[in-house]
């Protein structure tokens, strides 16, 4: 399985993580978790497809589509804050669960590999932050300020989730 979180991680470390990790099966249309839920694990999509959704008022909007090898929920292992988005399955999906205890086990087993794994997770979060910054910049460039009045131009692509 190709996943950026496992970049440069030795095969035996990946095998150790994956072999002991439980699998979660999520049926099409079911939520893995919802925005605001407490997070204690990250997930890697073994097979299937999911979508990250963000709530605005009573509506949910698509942030990103996720496929095999994508990791989900890794921020929970860094900041221990509630989930920042909801994850819904868009087809039957199987995920590998990795907990803070699993990472602690790698820390005790091989500090160098633990460090690489943490750096990879940080890079994934940073990539997402850069993408969000770019989207925010584009949205800002569509905004006009006339005196005290601020007008936001509508997005060309409405990502509202149809229910």
Based on the model shown, name its key terms.
single chain; 163 residues; alpha+beta; Jelly Rolls; 4-stranded antiparallel sheet; 4 helices; 10 strands; 31% strand
Mean pLDDT: 90
Tell me about the largest β-sheet: 4 strands, antiparallel
Class, according to the CATH hierarchy? Answer: Mainly Beta
Total number of domains: 1
Proportion of residues in β-strands:
25-35%
> Based on the structure given, which CATH architecture is correct?
Sandwich
Gist?
This protein is α+β, with helices and mostly antiparallel strands. It has four helices and ten strands.
How are the secondary structure elements laid out?
Layout: H1 11-20, E1 23-26, E2 31-33, E3 41-47, E4 50-56, E5 59-66, E6 71-72, H2 76-79, E7 86-89, E8 93-99, H3 100-109, H4 111-141, E9 143-146, E10 149-152
Helix pairs in contact: 3-4
Structure explained in plain terms:
- This protein has 163 residues and is an alpha+beta fold.
- The protein has one domain (4-152): Jelly Rolls, CATH 2.60.120.
- 34% of the residues lie in helices and 31% in strands.
- The protein contains four helices and ten strands; from the N terminus they run αββββββαββααββ.
- It has helices at 11-20, 76-79, 100-109, 111-141; strands at 23-26, 31-33, 41-47, 50-56, 59-66, 71-72, 86-89, 93-99, 143-146, 149-152.
- The strands form three sheets. Strands 1-8-3-6 form a four-stranded antiparallel beta sheet.
- A hairpin with a 2-residue loop joins strand 9 (143-146) and strand 10.
- Helix 3 crosses helix 4 (111-141).
- It is globular.
- It starts with 10 loop residues before the first helix and ends in an 11-residue tail after the last strand.
- The mean pLDDT is 90.
């Amino acid at each position: 399985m190709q996943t950026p979180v496992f970049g440069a991680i030795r095969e035996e470390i990946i095998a150790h993580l994956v072999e002991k990790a439980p699998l979660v099966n999520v049926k099409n249309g079911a939520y893995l978790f919802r925005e605001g839920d407490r997070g204690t694990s990250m997930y890697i999509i073994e097979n299937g497809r999911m979508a990250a959704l963000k709530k605005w008022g009573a509506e949910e909007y698509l942030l990103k589509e996720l496929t095999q090898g994508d990791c989900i929920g890794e921020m929970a292992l860094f900041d221990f804050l509630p989930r920042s988005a909801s994850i819904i399955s868009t087809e039957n999906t199987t995920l590998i669960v990795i907990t803070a205890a699993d990472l602690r086990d790698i820390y005790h087993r091989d500090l160098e590999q633990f460090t690489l794994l943490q750096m990879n997770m940080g890079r994934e979060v940073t990539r997402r932050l850069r993408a969000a910054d770019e989207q925010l910049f584009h949205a800002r460039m569509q905004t006009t300020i006339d005196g005290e009045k601020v007008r936001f131009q509508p997005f060309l692509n409405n990502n509202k989730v149809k229910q």
